[in-house]
Structure formats: structure tokens, C-alpha cells
């Protein structure tokens, strides 16, 4: 069992830390929110007065933070950066979804102190975090991946080695850009059927068993009433928020710009999600994009 | 066993007719191409001098024709239309992929002579036609569907009842519009990963097991070398031609226009496939759209 | 002065007929609405009991009808078509905005009776129709154009010879497709400026005097408050209705499909206008698409 | 006459500096390329051994650099930044096209030393730089704008005050995003006309005098042969390079992402230009996007 510091106990980080503790690891957690800390401590973790105190002596440091600037600051800030307090040989696992450039920058800086690093963003949402069934997309060397894998297994089900540092982030934005296209394309197709008299359950069944089959259509249908237990049948509550999809599409577009790639579908999805968020749907599930194609 | 007339023996119609004959039906075939007729007759069908001669006394008439105008002409042309020669009680199964309006017009006209009708376009390509594993999307009444089903089973695996007359065509264009979006979106995502250093096999595996999973990524990967036995690994030969996808997207757009639906992704896919066809790729497999996003 | 029959007295046709009468022509008008007829007769035209009666002895027949099927029926319907009543040598001027294929079909049929034809759709809206400042885009032979021009001058200011039969319609859909792109592009650019703190008047002035200059930005600004006397500053009342732009974009897309052209921007504009119409803005001016990009 | 330091003598900066010298100003220039310096010195400027030496005692410092990172480094680099050498009261005019955030950062830093600043990106291309007819879009206070205007008049014709610091950059990206949409939309419309038999000169003339009128159609026509003296009639040589338009669209997209704006047309134009550049057209004029819509 390992000695683990966990920084960032939000909707995702909290249950992830709890699963580590449940698996028998020694988990010392830190967050600016005392409530968030208390909740995880109640489930078996310990805490200390600062992130710096937490990482001292840890074999693993895991972080789950909102954006690249937070990751940069937590590890590399001039005086307060954890880089000066993490021990050589320790593995830093950053599970935040951020730009690959920041992941690489942090990896490179930590390497100068012989600290290992993987970027390991997740998919699977809050449900997956609680159930311990997340997917991890990991960027780092073969050795770093091998070091990370047993720890990640306590929080997830599929642990993918995407490639070198930053590759985990790239895999995540590619997947989520594709996911957004699947959702918009599925919504358009279902609405086109509806507008021409088809029953959406019948059409969904046909396409799911044909070449239109995809993750959103088959198990996360955006048309209300087609499936039980999906956000569409619960007024688009829960699930994966439009604002978070918009954030991930922002990262995908930055990646596309930086590599001068052509991503017309991804770019269209980005603008449609921005439009949808701007008209007040930011905290709805991302399948609510279906409504954008409603006929009055 | 039934007495079946089969009109239209192209790349799809030929093997479909052969499968009916192999199943033990009496199949009388007609096509303007003597070679096409000879090929099917050699496999067990019979032929007659005209389509009119074929349909006389038939319990089922099946047609597989290129476009709505051909279907309209074959059944309804003023003097030569089969409507005047098909017997009451017979079921016409039109498996052509055409506009729903023509399907409905033909159904309505045939009904005045007590001839039943279903539109039953297929998916599955030439491979599925030969193997007898096509999917049929059927539009017609419950009685007509029941009448059609046992015959269709000799040619396909999945027989879907999409709804009333025309619904088969609508389901087909919805599915194929969605399929085109899946293919373009998957191509963009894989190219974005490639441009940022990821191995396309690794990325495909990750996304297939994550929320990016879809029919094109999982079994028909557009990136050369990721999968064996797909057109992408055979210089985009075989499979489903760009020109045919462009035709289906044309039908999808006409359906979208007629119902004043908003289908931005489908419309973008249509223009990208038109662009791709115009630059000389019309007879390549539709997964070759991947090349549109190549970096030099 | 000429002897003119005028069929179709809607928002456009009515003032056009009045301008012909004011110019001194003998104008005999017909419409299914008695009110519409009475209004034009009060301004100096005459009427008869039927369209057939109106066209007998006329040197020119002008029609202004909603769609291709109406034009087809008015001229070519089996028994009631005007083709059987218009005199040889007469020029038919169809100013309806319809598909080019129908224009060509009518032209060809009329030619068998030695009746001349031009398609002559207009731009300039109701305001231009009343003021007699419409633009006409004319399709027909050089002789037909020469025959049409003096009559059109009584209703418009710019009379363009676009090419052979149907070319007037093609020019119209090309222009209006481009117009829709200008309006959406201008709306996006102004909203992007607004969201980043710029004054829309200042930004409009800069772009109008730079390479962003275009008809919509310079004289029909979609941002409320930038210009007086445009629909945007009058709650998007008046002007060119979203539903009419959607109709014209439908014709543009049919033209694009028929010629297998790639028109991604036009197709995107079509879907955005369909989306905008579906959310209840069909009778607003087409510059109201600006609102689609509003930040909450 | 003013004492001016000019940093960055590329295709644009060189002729701009020469125009300042010709207008009678004392211009001290610096560039890493000795050839570039020699060329401008031959036209009347002076030079010194370093940028730092140039700015000492200058009343104005003008920079024309490739990207935000260069501007940031030139002014703010820890030891070598010009901020430590420019005199209080001096006005820095940065004419580089960069992100607004960097402009604001530099402005704020310089203000701590009582150095004034405007961002003043240009439009008009190399031709405008040579002829002294550039447009400047200026971001800064009213006082800073007043200080800048007389100097800018020696290099340009239209000097626009866009707003506060950064507003010049925002105006530039809004304008150029719109410009790209005009160019793509015009190309599509002309190609649609061509594919349907229209003469592009005739169609261009009609649309230019109608509501399709825009800067690209009217004076920079992308169809070869329609206009003399434009890149389209010279194999798309000269003019405004595809790679530069792609760079500006990258800045526009970053601006759109940062403000969570929806810019579907701009985003589509960005992907089409990236696609066009990737297939080997990066150094062609941006009107060559017309070729993307060619029918074989």
C-alpha cells in the first residue's frame, strides 16, 4: 500500500481520493474548501495544514485541478510550488484536463528534480469517479506508466497508455471533440426523423443496429423519452455539463490551432455549444444540444 | 416458396436476387443489361423478355433501381408502367434508395389497384448483399411488413419496421447522414491526434473504448494501417463509394429542406463529400475523406 | 405603350403592376384575392374574370407567383394553362423566384407556340417594388432581353442580362446565398467585437472602411442602434423576412445539390436560418440572425 | 519632426520606416537582418548597434514584429527589455498583429514607467505599406491616440481609434475574420454560378451591384479572368498570403474562445484555410481558396 498526497477535492477529486483510501492506501488530502476536506477525511483519508505538508514523504502526488494555470501554479510557483517539496523518485499524477503544453512544462521541470510525472486525465464523469470505473488516458514513459497503473486501478477500470508526456491530454481532447460531434450529429439525425414522422425510439433502434451506431445514440440518447436513466429523460439534469464540454472543446480548438489542423466538425460543434451555453443552458447536460434543433 | 419478379440487377440487386433463388424461391429477373441477367440466371433464376412479362402472376415484385425517377417510371409510366400488369394482392418491395415522396406516390397509386407496397432500402453494401446480411428499413402497414418479412429474411439479417410508407426511406437517410458525420468526425479526431504525435492505433483503441466509440472508428477505421481488411488499408478501394454517399447526402438534404429542419453537421458533411468527389475521389471508399485532413 | 397582362398581385406584384399602369401601359390584372385586384384597379389597371381572359391579346404577360409549382400550373396545366391562350410573339416575363429547372421547362413549352419567355426574378424587396427601383436578373436570349428591358424599366432601376433561360434564377440564388453569408459573417464579427468590449458603431465604421466592407455591414447593419432606419433598430420589423431568406436558401441548396457543388458556408447559413425560423423568428427581418450570437 | 526608433524591418516594417524618414522624421532603425537595416538606411534612416541604443532619447518607438511572444520579449524581457531604456513620456506604437492580451500586458507594464502605448495593427498589405496608404486600428486612451495620429499619418490614410488598449487588435481580428468569410462566401457563390452555366464576369457584375456586394467581390475577385491586376489573374501570386490569413484566423479563434463567443462561419473559414494551406497553398494569395470549390 502506498503513501499518497491528493490535491483538489472537487466533484471528481473527492470520490477519487475516497476510492484510494478504501483500497487501503494512506491518503493525505488537501483542498481550499474545508468542507471538501472533511468529507474525504470522514471516509478514511488524513489531512494536513497545507499542500506542502501533504506531499512531504509521499510516494505519489495526485492532483485534480480546474485549469492549466492552477496546475502550473501548484507545482511550479516560484516560492510555494510543490516542486521544492516533493521527494525524488515520487510520481506525480496530474488527472486535471488541461492543455498538453502545460503538462509537458510541468513534466520537464519536475524531471530536473528526478520527480516522475504522468498526465492522466479521465473520462467517465462523476458517476465513474464514485463507482471507481473511470478511464485514464496516460502520458509518460513506459516506466512512469508502470509506476502509475496500480494506483490508477483503485480509481478506474480502463487505464490507457496514450504515449509520451502530454499524450494523455491530447487523447482526451481528441476523444471529447469526437464525442461532441457524435452528440450533435445524433441529435440532428433524430430530429430529422422526428420532423418527418418517425418514432424516435424506432429510429434510434434502427440506427443503433446499423452504421449510425455510436456511444451517444446507443447509451446516452439525447431525445427525451427514448431511454430511461439518461439526462434527456430527466430534463437534462446531471451528466456532463454543457459548460464542461465547452471547456474541453476550447482545449481541442487550441490544440487544433497550435498544430494548424483542419477540424471543421469539431469547430462547428464548439460554436454550437457556445451558442447553446450563451442562451442559458450551461449547467444542463450536454445532450441538451438536442433542443437546438427543435421545431417549434 | 414464393413466385418473385426482380427488376434491377446492379451491384446490389444481382446478389440479392441470387440469394432469393438460393433460398428456393422462383425468381424471374429483368435488367436492361443482358450480362447482368445472364449472371443471375446462371445462379438459378429465370428470365423473360420484359419486366411486364416477369411480373405477371408474381406474388412479389422487388425492385432495386438507381433513383426516384426510375422507380416512378418503372411502376407508373403511362403505358408501360408495371401498375397495369401486377396482380391485386401482390406485394411490391422497392429496395431502391430514393426520396420518400416518390415512395409514397407509388404506394398510393398501387393501392388503387389493391397492390401492396413497402419501401425497403438497405444498408450493408455489396458485401452484405452477397452474404445475405443486409439490413432492411421498411415503410408500410403492419400487414405489409408481415407480408414482406419472410422474403426479406432470405436477403438480410436485420429487418426493421420503420413506420408507414416512406418511413423506410427516411430512416435510411437519417442513418446515412449520421454515418457521414461519424466518418468525418472520426477522421478529424484521428488526424488531430496524429498531428500531435499520437499513434493512430493507440488513439483508436482508446476512443473505441471511451465515449468516442462509433461504427466507423470501431470497425471501419479510416486511417491506413490501423485495421486490416478495411478499405483504408487497401488504398480506399472497395466498400461504399464517395459518389454513393454524396447521393445519399443529397437525399438527406432534400429531406431536411422539405421539412425545414436544421442539420448543420449533415450539411457540412455533404459539402465536404462534394468537395472530395470533385477532386477526383468519387469512386474511392467513403472513408477516404480522411485524406482531406492530411497534413502535407 | 404596351398591352400587359399581370398575374399575381401579392406584396411585390401589386406595386409592380401599379408602376406599370402609372407609366402609361394598359395593364389588365388577375389574382385570386378580390381585394388585391381592387387595390391595383384603383390605381389605374383594369381586370377581367380570369387569367385566361387577361392574357388574350396581350403583348406581355408578367407573373409574380410564390413557387415553381404555381408557375408550372399557371402556364402549363393541361386544360387551364395560359399556354393555350397567349398569342404567338407575346413575351412572358416571369418574375417569381423559383427553381431554374421550372423556368427552363416553361420557356421550352412556350417556345413550341412561338411565345417568348424570360425568367426575371427581382431583388430590392417591397420597398423597391413600390419605389420602382427593383433589380431584375433576366434569363433569355438577346432578343428576348431586348424585348423585356423597356417594360422592366417601368418597375426597376437595374436590369441585368444574366444569360440564357434559367440564368436569371441562378443569378438570384447565387446572390441571395452570398447575401446570407454576408449577414451571418457580419453578425458574428460584430458580436465578437461586442463581447470583447468594442463599441459596435466604432467597429462597424472601421470594418466598413476596411476589407470587411459589405452590403449588410455598410447599409443594413444587424446590430440594434448602429444605424437608424434599418430593421435592426426597429425590433427587426419590416425588411426581408427570415422565412423568405430560408426559401431562397432552399432554392440555393437545391441548385448546389443538382450541380454537385460544394457550398459549405451557404449550407451553414441555411441551417442557421432554419434554426432561427424554428425558434419563432420566421416573420422577423433576416438581420435578426444577429440575435443567435447574443451573449446572455 | 519627431525622433523615432523603429524595431522590425520585414516586408511591412521596412517600407513603413522608409515613409517615416521620407516625411522628414529622424528615424533610427533596428532589425536582426543587416540587409533589412541597410535597405532602410539607404532610404534616409539611421541605425545603431542595438534596439536599446535606438530607443534611447526617442519620442516614439514603433515595432512591427511577427507574434505576441516577440513583442513581449522585446519590451519586457527581464534584462534586455526596452522598458528599462525608453524614456518617460515616450509613446510606444506596436503595429504588430498579435493577441490583445499581450498588448494589454505590455501597455500596463509600460505605464508603470510612465511610458505611453498604443496597439496599432494595420491593414492594407505590403502595397499599402509602400504607398503609405495603410489603415491603422488603434487601441489606447484619447490622449495616446492624439499623440499617435500625426506619426501614423506618415504611413497610412485611415487612422481609426478603436477603443482602449487591446481594442486595435480586437478590431483587426474581427475585420479579418469577416474578410475571410467574405472571400469564402464569394468563392462559393461564383463557383455555384459557374457550375450552372453563368459567366463569372456577368455574375460578378450583377452581385456587385446587388446585395451580394462586398470588398472581395467588388475589387479583389477570386475567379481568374474576371479582373485584371488582382492575384486571381496572376496565378494567385502576391497579395495576402494564405498562411497570414491562417495566422489571423488563429488569433480570431483564440479571441472567440476566450470570450466564449459563437463564431461558426469564422471557425469554418479557419478550418478551410488550414485545409488549403496543408495541401500546399500557404504562400499563395488568400483568394486562392476559390480553387477549393473547383469542379474537376
UniProtKB/TrEMBL annotation, chains A, B, C, D:
InterPro entries, sorted: 3-OH-isobutyrate_DH-rel_CS, 6-PGluconate_DH-like_C_sf, 6PGD_dom2, 6PGDH_NADP-bd, HIBADH, HIBADH-like_NADP-bd, HIBADH-related, NAD(P)-bd_dom_sf
Residue span(s) of domain 6-phosphogluconate dehydrogenase NADP-binding: 3-163
Originating species: Colwellia marinimaniae
Known EC number: 1.1.1.31
Family: Belongs to the HIBADH-related family.
Pathway linked to the protein: Amino-acid degradation; L-valine degradation
One of the record's GO molecular function terms: 3-hydroxyisobutyrate dehydrogenase activity
Segments passing through the bilayer: none
Enzyme class: oxidoreductase
Keyword Oxidoreductase among record annotations: yes
Name listed for the protein in its UniProt record: 3-hydroxyisobutyrate dehydrogenase
Annotated signal sequence range: none
Keyword field: Branched-chain amino acid catabolism, NAD, Oxidoreductase
Domain 3-hydroxyisobutyrate dehydrogenase-like NAD-binding: 166-292
Catalytic activity: 3-hydroxy-2-methylpropanoate + NAD(+) = 2-methyl-3-oxopropanoate + NADH + H(+)
